From TrEMBL:
InterPro entries: Glyco_trans_1
Lineage, broadest ranks: Bacteria, Pseudomonadati, Pseudomonadota, Alphaproteobacteria, Hyphomicrobiales
Domain of life: Bacteria
CDD domains: GT4_PimA-like
UniProt key word Transferase: yes
Organism in which the protein naturally occurs: Methylobacterium aerolatum
Sorted UniProt keywords: Glycosyltransferase, Transferase
Name of the protein in question: Glycosyltransferase involved in cell wall biosynthesis
Domain Glycosyl transferase family: 193-347
Gene3D superfamilies listed in its UniProt record: Glycogen Phosphorylase B (3.40.50.2000)
């Protein structure tokens, strides 16, 4: 009889504490809760703040040179980087063969997905990306070659990959930890509307769209809005400087504050009346919008990607066309001048979060997918599997 502990390997492409990193932490926490006796080994590409957050749940944390497909590094990866790919795939294959199940928390970890194609019995790939152009074609091919069982974080992500139906696949929304009681105080127009934007500073996220939208508003409306843009650019200080210069050039320095990324954004949500996600390109889901609803802060989002799956337009928040600064500005003007029209949104958003994006429901679904892999032949099945995966 096999008494060894189940070995679960969890692979992630980052080492910070942005949204994708926090989603990974929550997935590992769920696995520790549902499979308490398992050995859970985490593999990361570098040391960073995510390590401390994972330590309560991981049996071990390994820092290894993962072969990660990033757009900004493509020229190097497709030239000198190719020489390191065979070694990276071999290293990943050794880990896969030592594990009962391998959880790859993104489709850009190329070495592990290629290695999964050489051992198709035990890998789960959790896809959180919607790419475009040649990168999208490359990622689709990589996912198909992997043979992994697929988890998509939204219907929009599933549609973007368009993997044929016989392939085992499911949609599981990212579970977001309950931040505690939602805000109860409603915005009544007696002070400036507090608008929050969280996320990496990039063209994709649309900080520039928000700045342009504010600059288009009449002075009488713009003066009734206070904005926090929270985040940093990824290895791109010039982009941060360009955003600061655009804010100053638009005459918005007195109303828009640029603040650095912090691991726990709870204080910002406590400050905010609404949260804005003005993405230019598809978000695979929209964690910030979900967190906003969990805090009782209605989201104003682009109608693109997975964001419309998060926000019920006119009920829990608002949607506007992506990249449309005029439409975003008009929505902000309506929100400022007619607060009674959305007084019910915070409570409705909190209910939607609890129903669709709470950790319990998402954790059950994720554990069930692990159970399906672990129930295969030749694996060490934990004693808790029958209850953990079917609750």
């Amino acid at each position: 009889m096999n008494h060894r502990a189940t070995r679960i390997t969890c692979v992630h492409q980052g080492c910070e504490l942005y949204g994708s990193d926090r989603s990974f932490i929550e997935s590992v926490r769920v696995l520790r809760e549902r499979f308490p006796e398992a050995d859970i080994d985490v593999v990361l590409p570098g040391d960073g703040p995510i390590v401390g957050a994972l330590e309560p749940y991981a049996s071990s944390i390994a820092i290894e040179p993962l072969w990660i497909l990033r757009r900004r590094h493509l020229p190097r990866l497709m030239t000198l980087g190719l020489a390191t790919l065979p070694l990276a795939v071999a290293r990943a294959l050794r880990r896969i063969r030592r594990s009962d199940v391998v959880y790859v928390n993104t489709c850009v970890v190329t070495d592990y997905l290629l290695a999964a194609g050489l051992d198709r019995r035990r890998t789960l790939a959790h896809l959180h990306e919607i790419a475009e152009g040649p990168v999208a074609l490359g990622l689709r091919l990589l996912v198909r070659l992997s043979g992994a069982r697929l988890i998509f974080n939204s219907r929009a992500t599933q549609a973007a990959f368009a993997i044929p139906a016989p392939r085992p696949q499911t949609v599981i929304y990212n579970g977001i930890a309950d931040p505690g009681p939602a805000k109860t105080a409603a915005y009544d127009g007696s002070r400036p509307l507090r608008v929050l934007m969280l996320g990496r500073i990039s063209r994709i996220k649309g900080q520039d769209v928000l700045v342009e939208a504010l600059s288009r508003l009449p002075d009488a409306v713009r003066s009734r809005i206070a904005v926090r843009i929270v985040g940093n650019a990824f290895e791109d200080e010039a982009r941060e400087a360009a955003l600061a210069a655009a804010i100053e050039a638009a005459g918005l320095s007195g109303q828009v504050r640029l603040l650095p990324f912090i691991p726990d954004p709870s204080a910002h949500f406590a400050w905010a009346d609404i949260v804005v996600v003005p993405s230019r390109l598809p978000e695979s889901l929209g964690r910030v919008a979900i967190e906003g609803m969990a805090h009782g802060v209605p989201p104003l989002v682009s109608d693109i990607g997975g964001l419309p799956e998060v926000v019920a337009d006119g009920e829990t928040g608002w949607t506007v066309p992506p990249g449309d600064a005029a439409a975003l500005g008009e929505a902000l003007a309506r929100i400022v001048t007619a607060p009674d029209a959305w007084a019910s949104f915070p409570a409705a958003g909190r209910r939607r979060y609890e129903r669709l994006f709470g950790q319990e429901a998402c954790g059950d679904a994720l554990a069930a997918e692990f159970g399906r892999v672990l129930s295969g032949p030749g694996t060490a099945v934990p004693a808790t599997l029958s209850t953990a995966a079917t609750r």
